[in-house]
Design a protein that fits this description.
Alpha-Beta Plaits, binds iron/sulfur cluster, 75 residues, 20% helix, alpha+beta
Length: 75
């Protein structure tokens, strides 16, 4: 399994994570930042645990994120 973490405060709403993994990320109509689908909020740090099957596309999301606010941790 992997834990996906998003430091959402620093998201600039570029859409790159959605392009990498449309099933795990979406854009918010409210504030224009991305939303980690299924993510739990702890002081604007969102995280979710998912299966390894989602690892490649979310590693791509992390790599493509221009502000480097996405982290992927193997657990
Ligand atoms: S790639 Fe990074 S900066 Fe761009 S929308 Fe996703 S989390 Fe925000």
């Amino acid at each position: 399994m992997i834990r996906i973490i998003q430091l959402r405060d620093k998201c600039i709403g570029c859409n790159a994570c959605v392009e990498a993994s449309a099933s795990r990320w979406r854009m918010s109509r409210k504030d224009g930042k991305s939303v980690l689908i299924g993510g739990v909020n702890n002081k604007q740090i969102f995280s979710v645990i998912v299966g390894d099957d989602e690892k490649p596309e979310n590693l791509q999301a992390a790599r493509n994120c221009p502000t480097k606010v996405i982290q992927i941790i193997q657990i």
